[in-house]
Amino acid sequence: MISPARTTGNARLILKAATEAQHHSLDHGFGALDLKNRNDYKSFLTAQAAVLRPLENWLTQQGIARVLPDWPARRRSEAVASDLAGLNTEMLADDAVSISDRASAPLLLGVAYVLEGSRLGAQYLSREVAASPDRAVRDNMRFLTHGAGQKLWPSFLEILERNVIDPAAADEAAAGARATFDLFLRSQQRHAPALAGAGA
Q: What's residue 96's pLDDT?
């Protein structure tokens, strides 16, 4: 249980601490890929897409738009699908995703915290991809640049802090965030290592 003293105005910090080890593992795994390399970049996008589309569908079905009104504009499934198509790679068939049978607003926002927070890393990764000598790589950056300049992260944090204001809510949000990181870690293990380091 999270201490009440740690909740007020600190939902972001609580979720960051709760998922720090998973976040580090995910970054370390993807860090082994050279995103300027076409095959490594496809590996990265495939691992992202395998979770993103079913997870976004699940969030939509659970009614996340009730707490995150601009949710449709935040979805990135089409962006990553377009990038993969531009690289002559098909999206994998969706695997059903269910984080919880009881999807409270804090839990949904915990899931969204992982998705929205990844935009910060995407800004850094987009610079690496933009430096690729491969034009096909440079021309397919819709996923990494989605929402650039729209301040989606700060606006998400405002909603997070309004909805995660007590220990019980913080626990639910943390559970959603950890479950989401687990999905991406499993996808990384399935899809990233096979292509890491391969030539274009």
A: 74
